[in-house]
Amino acid sequence: VQLQASGGGLVQAGGSLRLSCVVSASLHSFNIMAWYRQAPGKERELVASVTDRRSPKYGDSVKGRFAISKDYAKNTLNLQMSSLQPEDTAVYYCYADQQVMSDRYEFWGQGTQVTVSS
Predict the structure, then answer these.
(1) pLDDT below 70 — which residues of the chain?
(2) How many Å apart are CA 68 and CA 78, to the nearest integer?
(3) Strands 32-38 and 90-100
(4) d(C-alpha 65, C-alpha 68), whole Å
(5) What confidence score (pLDDT) does residue 53 get?
(6) pLDDT tens-digit series, residues 65-82
(7) Contacts of 31 (CB under 8 A, 6+ apart)
(8) What is the Cα–Cα distance from 80 to 89, expressed in whole angstroms?
(9) Cβ-proximal residues to 48 (8 Å cutoff; 6+ apart), any chain
(10) According to the model, what pLDDT value does residue 52 have?
């Protein structure tokens, strides 16, 4: 399974970006899909996650500003980011979790840089 993230870039504070993660398998194959981010000198943190069984969950710092969604027709995980702030600057990674029988597999995209200028 391969995850290819894109959509990052440089944006001014208050602006918006849409990240996409194209997956080489059907999204129905995965239990949890998520976006994480890692800023310089900081640990990787969960931004948003989604499953088929519950409503999306968001990190406290992005609630009300970010929205995660799945496009099954395009095998794509999206993250719509609005009201961006400099503290949102980070490398963003998409993630997928798959359970096959008793084995669990985790997959990561390569990361896409988001830079928010003040």
Answers:
(1) none
(2) 6
(3) antiparallel
(4) 10
(5) 87
(6) 999 999 999 999 999 999
(7) 51, 97, 98, 99
(8) 15
(9) 34, 35, 56, 57, 58, 59, 62, 66, 67, 68, 79
(10) 85
Could you tell me the two tokens for 117?
Answer: 């200028």
Q: Going by C-beta distance under 8 Å and a sequence separation of 6 or more, which residues neighbour residue 10?
A: 115, 116, 117
Residue identified by tokens 């840089």 is 113
Please give the Cα distance from 71 to 63 (Å, whole number): 21
Place of tokens 């997928």: 96
Separation of alpha carbons 107 and 40, rounded Å:
22
- As to burial, measured by CB atoms within 10 angstroms (0-12 exposed, 13-18 middle, 19+ buried), residue 39 is middle
Give the pLDDT confidence score for residue 66 in this predicted structure.
98
Q: Exposure of 55 by Cβ count < 10 A (0-12 exposed, 13-18 middle, 19+ buried)? A: exposed
